[in-house]
Design a protein that fits this description.
heterodimer; A: alpha+beta; Butyryl-Coa Dehydrogenase, subunit A, domain 1; Butyryl-CoA Dehydrogenase, subunit A, domain 2; Butyryl-CoA Dehydrogenase, subunit A, domain 3; four-stranded antiparallel sheet; three-stranded mixed sheet; B: 410 residues; alpha+beta; 3 domains; 13 helices; 7 strands; 48% helix; globular; binds flavin-adenine dinucleotide
């Protein structure tokens, strides 16, 4: 039955994460963008929300919460509103932990999940993207070939968040190139495994506070027990739907940040004797931003809802994410435009949001709900 | 709790509307477009009896009051209206607008009338022969700026006397002359009072002094008559004034605005219906041509056609979700002026572009009158114009998000 109201619990989560994003994350965003470093204390404070540990089963010391993609999208949006780079950093351990919760074997759960139930931030990550112009989630070039009892991995990855500080990572590789998404598997690979080389930190246009790395895998041997889900394997398509929903939800947060900032500026800034917001040329831009934010959010929620119902959300999540990729760029660009020359200056955050938003069309797989 | 599911009862009702679209509208769609002022009387009769028999409520006949009997069930009236409107406009938006019912006139009676007036004026739509209701506010000298009403209503003993010219009145001909319907006419009782002086009057069909001066020739929705009405010392009884004659800040004109909160999502839904018609056609066409639309692949490997198609699809869905939200807000008693305008502005523009793109994607076939796609492009455009143009809805949205009055932003 159609309903657009958040549950009480979701409303509470939205309020508390939203307040944290506004009061704690946002002030840290610009310094982090400039320096590339996120204060450990902030990461630690975010960890206390239980974004990761909450979903770890109770028997491994976690909160045992039932995951909901809709709730995940709400959290992701608020963090994205605060700062997407910091948000991605804070949520990065999910990239490793959640697929294990959802699709791992009992042994894998027992072995890896405990570390995410503790009081301290536990860095972990996943390697999805590959450095190619026509990179395709369903056609991973990194391969995992059977080799005796285990597998041998070869190829290159990029945009791997926190790779240098993660003990283990989840590396996605093709086991059967004829099967598309179904032919992709996940492998739990300790960082120190022979054949794994982690590059210098990547230098990107935006998301500058998020440490990301390239990964080279050269005849990297892992045991059969490294394969996520064991012989059953995984539903990689679903994992990528969860990823699109999370990243898109963060995009909605970025749009909302740009909108709020531009709206408030436009009411203050005077030109020709009146606030620029009283001119239709500016007011209509702001109205358009508001429409696009609501439209994008509803598309994201709908895709998340499909996931929560256990359905195939490929189309919904793909369209929602592409929609966000386009509209976030347009909305953040408008944010700069409304501020005029001042928008171009790094004293204001709008140029940062524009740089961050450009990443949505290029990057996949660096967040999950 | 966030939910995007339509319950089975709603879905089965929608199938009924879909059947009406498919079997009663589509077959006569082209003909009604090519022969603009020829009336599909058979269609009117069928729709009229279908709505009586199968309880298919077409148009805006919705009770604003929750009916006591169904108090336990959540109200779904506005959601159902936008859903059925989409379904019917998938069939034909012009025919949808020409369907005999109380129309915008009925909506005005519901919004501004007393219980007695509602009974008196609306009863007819449940009995006898097909009838139409219409609403006339637009005049030759203004459209968007509806505070500029120059048509006057002057008290003369037991009567109001209406003088002025109204244009672009949907179903005006059917309501004023060709059925036992009525036209709700907005006229000022006190020019010096501005907006609060503008009041709605119900003028019965064939009232002396009301004439249909002209029926317009249009770009699209040609099955719907758009009439110019002249009121020349048109005398109507005192109780034809909806609500109170008193000139105060509240009431009267505010009621027009209140109607828009309910009717804008409906116009958005009209647009969405037309857009879906075009999208469905293109989808089937691409399938026949063995052109796959590959969801999930690298955006850089998509063909231009795939990209266009996906963009049409997601824009339509975005507009639909905004529209459902606006309707849901009405159903749950929330103020929705902002959200109603968002839905209308988004749907009006998105579908204008979607249908234009559909013509383009189909190549020479798209431009041909052999198929209906070019007609849908012409039909779609009206949704970005009436019930508040794109720009007027943007102003409303901007005022709300900026917290500006109409003086501060206009
Ligand atoms: C890198 C850089 C180099 C520059 N170099 C020079 C230089 O060498 N010399 C120099 O003198 N200046 C220079 N400028 C300043 C530049 O010309 C101004 O930034 C520009 O004119 C816009 O003014 P503003 O930034 O004050 O924006 P504002 O005037 O505050 O405008 C803000 C927004 O409101 C809009 N707006 C303003 N008035 C209206 C209106 N009436 N109707 C509708 N919309 C309106 C604008 O389009 C803009 O979107 C430079 C700026 C930058 C960023
Ligand atoms: C087929 C059809 C059916 C209709 N049915 C009805 C009906 O049943 N009853 C009825 O009363 N009316 C009806 N109308 C009238 C309709 O509501 C008006 O056409 C509409 O409100 C626009 O008014 P206008 O045509 O006078 O345009 P104008 O108001 O003259 O506007 C012209 C252009 O200027 C823009 N504009 C106007 N004001 C502003 C502003 N402040 N800022 C920025 N831009 C602005 C508009 O967006 C538009 O693009 C119908 C119209 C059509 C075409």
């Amino acid at each position: 039955m159609i309903d657009f109201e958040l549950s009480e619990e979701q409303q509470m989560i939205r309020d508390s994460v939203g307040a944290f994003a506004r009061e704690k994350i946002r002030p840290a965003a610009r310094p982090a963008d400039e320096s590339g470093a996120i204060p450990a204390a902030l990461v630690s404070e975010a960890w206390q929300f239980g974004f990761v540990s909450g979903a770890i089963p109770e028997k491994f010391g976690g909160g045992g919460d039932t995951r909901s993609a809709v709730t995940g999208a709400i959290v992701a949006e608020e963090l994205g509103f605060g700062d997407i780079s910091i948000g991605l950093h804070v949520l990065a351990p999910r990239l490793f932990a959640f697929p294990i919760v959802e699709m791992g074997t009992d042994d894998q759960r027992a072995k890896y999940l405990k570390r995410f139930a503790g009081a301290d931030f536990a860095a972990a990550t996943a390697a999805v993207m590959e450095p190619r112009f026509d990179y395709d989630l369903s056609a991973q070039h990194v391969s995992a070939k059977r080799d005796g009892a285990g597998y041998v991995l070869n190829g290159g990855k990029c945009y791997v968040p926190l790779a240098a500080e993660s003990d283990s990572m989840l590396i996605y590789a093709t086991t059967d190139a004829s099967k598309g998404y179904a032919g992709v598997d996940g492998f739990i690979v300790p960082r120190t495994t022979a054949g794994v080389t982690i590059s210098e930190r990547e230098k990107n246009m935006g998301l500058k506070a998020l440490a990301t790395y390239e990964l080279t895998l050269k005849d990297c041997h892992v045991g059969a027990d490294a394969r996520l889900g064991g012989d059953k394997g995984i539903d990689f398509s679903r994992l990528m739907c969860e990823s699109r929903v999370a990243f898109a939800a963060m995009g909605v947060g970025v749009m909302n940040a740009a909108f709020e900032y531009a709206r408030d500026y436009a009411k203050e800034r005077k030109a020709f004797g009146v606030p620029i917001a009283t001119k239709q040329a500016i007011a209509f831009i702001l109205a358009d931003m508001a429409i696009e934010i609501d439209a994008a959010r509803l598309l994201v929620w709908e895709a998340a809802y499909e996931l929560d119902k256990g359905r195939d959300a490929l189309k919904a999540s793909y369209l929602a994410k592409n929609y966000v990729a386009n509209s976030a760029l347009k909305v953040t660009d408008n944010g700069v435009q409304v501020l005029g020359g001042h928008g171009y200056i790094r004293e204001h955050p709008v140029e940062m949001w524009l740089r961050n938003a450009r990443g949505f069309s290029a990057i996949e797989g660096i967040a999950t709900v | 709790m966030i939910d995007f599911e339509l319950e089975p009862q709603i879905l089965s009702r929608l199938q009924m509307f879909h059947a009406v679209s498919e079997h009663m509208m589509r077959p006569i769609s082209r003909d009604c477009d090519e022969h603009e002022h020829t009336k599909p009387t058979q269609f009117y009769e069928s729709m009229w009896s279908a709505s009586a028999a199968a309880d298919i409520q077409v148009g805006n006949d919705r009770s604003k009051k929750a009916d006591g009997g169904a108090a336990a069930a959540p109200r779904r009236a506005n959601l159902m209206t936008v859903l059925s409107t989409e379904e019917l406009c998938w069939g034909d938006a012009g025919l949808y607008l020409s369907t005999p019912n109380s129309g915008l006139g009925g909506a005005a009676v519901m919004a501004a009338g007393t219980p007695e007036q509602k009974e008196r004026f609306l009863k007819r739509f449940k009995e006898g022969k097909p009838k139409w209701g219409a609403m006339a506010i637009t005049e030759p000298s203004f459209g968007s700026d509806s505070s500029q009403v120059t048509t006057t209503a002057t008290r003369d003993g037991d009567h109001w006397v209406i003088n002025g010219t109204k244009i672009f009145c949907t179903a005006g001909e059917m309501a004023a002359e060709k059925s036992e319907g009525f036209v709700v006419v907005w006229a000022t009782v006190d020019k010096s009072a501005g907006r609060p002086g503008i009041k709605p009057f119900v003028v019965e069909h064939n009232t002396a002094g009301m004439t249909v001066a002209r029926v317009e020739n249009k770009l699209g929705i040609r099955a719907s008559d758009t009439a110019a009405l002249i009121f020349d010392n048109c005398r109507i009884p005192l109780d034809a004034l909806l609500g109170s004659a008193e000139v105060r800040k509240e009431g009267g004109f505010k009621d027009v605005m209140a109607t828009f909160d309910a009717t804008r999502p409906i116009v958005a839904a009209m647009a969405i219906g037309v857009g879906r018609a075009a999208l469905d056609f293109v989808r089937d066409f691409l399938e026949q041509q063995d052109v796959a639309v590959r969801y999930g692949i690298s955006p850089r490997r998509l063909t231009a056609v795939e990209r266009d198609f996906m963009e049409m699809e997601v824009q339509l869905q975005a507009a639909r979700l905004l529209t459902w939200r606006a309707a849901w807000m009405l159903d749950t008693g929330k103020r929705n002026s902002l959200e109603a305008s968002m839905a209308k502005a988004k749907a009006g523009l998105a579908v204008t572009l979607i249908t234009q793109k559909a013509v383009e994607l189909l190549g020479p076939l798209g431009y041909s009158r052999k198929i209906l796609v070019e007609k849908w492009m012409r039909d779609a455009k009206i949704n970005d114009i009436f019930e508040g143009t794109q720009q007027i809805n943007m102003i409303i949205i901007a005022r709300r998000i900026l917290n500006y009055s109409s003086k501060e932003l206009n």
